[in-house]
Amino acid sequence: MSHPTQTVDVLLLPQSNLILLSALTEPLRAANRLLGESRFSTRLWSLDGQSVDTTAGFAVPVSGRFDPDQPEPLLVAASYGVERFIPALRHPLSRAMRCRPFIAAADGGVLLLAEAGLYNGYQAALHAEDVEMLGARCQAVRLSRRRWVIDRDRASARGSGSAIEMMLSLIERWADRSLAESVARLFDFVPADSIGAPRDTTRGLRDDRVARVLDAMASHLSDPLSVEQLAALINVTRRGLHDLFNRELGTSPQAAYVQCRLERARQLLVESDWPIADIAQQCGYAQGASLSRAYRAAFGESPQASRQRAARGGSAPE
Known about the structure:
Oligomer: single chain
Helix content: 40-55%
CATH architecture of the largest domain: 3-Layer(aba) Sandwich
Number of domains: 2
Number of helices: 13
CATH superfamily of the largest domain: Class I glutamine amidotransferase (GATase) domain
């Protein structure tokens, strides 16, 4: 039995990467192939109606100028330098919020939507490089530690890989689970039983309050919250928070927070060329020496050693 075609609009911004665009559109194309019918139709739009230059050096043709007042679901694809588009898109995206039944974004597009207020009161999965920026400016956004998240009529994904997972879950929402599983198998991407639930460190927690505290920790790395502040977020005492973490994670809130900050430091060491002192500040340490002591105690080597080994292609210590 044939089904009506679900049209999905994609707003593509300059300097997006092709991997991200493919992550948002190829799962829908694959679903059509598996069904033998056009269940999904994607339309690409740009800010000015002209072809969009991507990071690969290829210009991607589009259907025309982006119209926020259409009734179709909207996906926003953006990668680099998105800050310069915020003034021009703040009003159109606010209009889209009133007309579009569903809006999602990936990578830098999440930051754009957050700046326009579309994630106010919603969970949002933000790329690690944008967390500090967003946390300072958009207090109404509930930053999530998940790689992707669907919250009511909004969705977000940190990057290209998590965007594919988000799209698989949207196929499940717009069609059915079996189709999403078939697309996953076609891509040889993720186990079918992971569709419909993000893969993150909060999965499997019996008490959602712990996940909320972990989200708050991830949102306040450069300015760590006190244990009392974390406890107040979920209306428990300091002792009650300790008992929750010990029961759910087998560790204290303080130890979990330190681990979160150090994992972020390790990521920045590998993925950036920032000085150790700057990484220390981003992760809530006053000085590079303080970070180095904590880092060595946790990982058995100095931050400099981790960076050098990553540059040589070695694997990080557990």
